[in-house]
Fold this sequence. Notes:
The chain is an alpha+beta fold and 353 residues long.
Amino acid sequence: xxxxxxxxxxxxxxxxxxxxxxxxxxxxxxxxxxxxxxxxxxxxxxxxxxxxxxxxxxxxxxxxxxxxxxxxxxxxxxxxxxxxxxxxxxxxxxxxxxxxxxxxxxxxxxxxxxxxxxxxxxxxxxxxxxxxxxxxxxxxxxxxxxxxxxxxxxxxxxxxxxxxxxxxxxxxxxxxxxxxxxxxxxxxxxxxxxxxxxxxxxxxxxxxxxxxxxxxxxxxxxxxxxxxxxxxxxxxxxxxxxxxxxxxxxxxxxxxxxxxxxxxxxxxxxxxxxxxxxxxxxxxxxxxxxxxxxxxxxxxxxxxxxxxxxxxxxxxxxxxxxxxxxxxxxxxxxxxxxxxxxxxxxxxxxxxx
Length: 353
């Protein structure tokens, strides 16, 4: 890593000061390092991702809204208002002396599966409109009930940190970076954007630095969603594999965003005659597929926990904590109904005077 005073530290600094001829690494290629050393042909490419802990499965309290998409809810409301308007206009045209307020509420009553009665004065077109609406709402409510029963058996596994923006916007989580890596070099060199926000978060105590060999010491804090690691996918994959080999559990996940990506290569002194000879051997090794074979062979259980489901189905009773959103909607509805009833009583008393 290159410091503000221009000096280079770590193994890159040793090569730069000509204390050693070359370093294996491999090292991420960036502009700051390229000024100090020469790189060989890249041996692989790595992406920087978020490494976070998986929470325990839970029920979405607003899951009762999921059987229907937002556009379906909007269209149902739009049709309800449209039919009420058509019903009002037709009533004004063909039966101006009949009260229409009760008939207008019939559409809502049908959707809520309540009884509806037009009496003997109902016109044929009123019965046709209400019948079509009844048929449509019956299909809709049956579909809603079936999907809702299925969704109540589903547990959602929260994975809130998919991007670096998700992490930065959560003030409760600490970001762990490798201080001497190319990723932190990009953060420290930034003057704007999301990486600059990461740099500024150090003032709030939300930035921590560890060497990759020390990541094992904070795994419990990552599972508790107190910390996340921002590092190369190959490094955190090895961390996840080792944890699975020890415990048999898949407690972690990687975010979907590739925050940044770097090619990785060996380094040598500037204008070193070793570079052409090493490049030739690296090309032969990569073309033969040996590097990928050796890397996969060294990482046992490499495919474990790669595609862990984010939703699981279980059979268990529901608790009040899991259904609090339904209770909130019911309570608000009852309170609104009570307020409207009181207003009607007061208004009727005032008009009776």
